[in-house]
Amino acid sequence: MARSRPRPSSLHAVCVLALAAPLALAFAMYADAAAGPAPNSSCNEPIDVNAKSFDADYKGNTTQLRNVVISQCDIRLEAQHASATGLNFDNARWTFDGDVRVDVENRGSLLADRAVVDFQNSQISKVTINGSPAEFEQRQNDTNMVARGRAGEIVYEVIAGTVRLANDAWLKYGTTEMKGSSLLYNIREENVQGASQPGDSERVHIRISPKKTPTPASPPKNNGTGAKPSTPPKSP
Question: How far is the C-alpha of 101 from the C-alpha of 136, rounded, in Å?
Fold first, then answer.
């Protein structure tokens, strides 16, 4: 009895599984973000502010700082200019402009033209950066692996330990690249999720490049003279 040929739907399912398996193995992605690490609420250090100049208008309830550095625990923000309403960090929002750099946990860093920082209960809770593009980078402690990303907007959630890239998002981890409208990278777990925005037809694009193998050393070349080694004269 002749064997029946697989139906097209069966072939499609086999192809999808064959492609999905190596992607899951390569990234460890599409993990459940809600089941991520426990919130990091151990930071009880004070907020340190250092600036070259400081201008506080108590009547207008505004604050202006130039060449400012603000740090707390693992987070350090640096910019040419910062402004806020009042001078407090209890449920406040500060704006940073000009050569903004934000150093975060686990050797991560953010670079942008502008950043908006939200404070809750005198703690840095969220950092939103914008640029053309805004950039993210994380270097691993024990390997040479580097995670790099860029997007029109990047949001760092301190408690969750995540970085969300939106608006033409691009992320590279090792030899793996991802592009999409929105990408979510977990700094602590080192995994990434990608999904299209509601009503957005753009799909997540993934590219895995082969690892480069070292080129074997070439044998030493002749000196180019073409002369043969001389033979010693025979003894009489």
Answer: 10
The two tokens of residue 47 are: 């907020």
Of all residues in the chain, what percent carry a pLDDT higher than 90? Answer: 46
**DSSP helix/strand/coil, 91:** coil
Percent of the chain with pLDDT over 70: 69
Quote the radius of gyration of the chain (alpha carbons, Å).
27
Task: Classify the C-alpha dihedral 31-36-37-40 as positive or negative.
Answer: positive
Which tokens go with 26? 């390569």
Contact 204, 169 (CB under 8 A): no
| Closest by Cα among 68, 60, 67 to 86 | 60
Domain limits, the chain:
32-208
Residue type, 171: L
Read off the pLDDT of residues 197-217 as tens digits, 9 standing for 90 and up: 677 777 888 898 887 766 666
Q: Give residue 99's region: left, alpha or beta (phi > 0; psi -120 to 50).
A: left
CB 185 within 8 A of CB 147: yes
User: Cis before residue 219, ω within 30 degrees of 0?
Assistant: no
CATH architecture of 32-208: Sandwich (2.60)
**CB neighbours of residue 171 within 10 Å:** 22
Four-residue CA torsion sign, 168, 166, 112, 148:
negative
Residue 190's CB is within 10 A of a number of other CB atoms, namely 15
Burial class for 94, CB neighbours closer than 10 Å (0-12, 13-18, 19+): buried
Contact 67, 100 (CB under 8 A): no
Any idea which residue has 């209890």 for tokens? Answer: 90
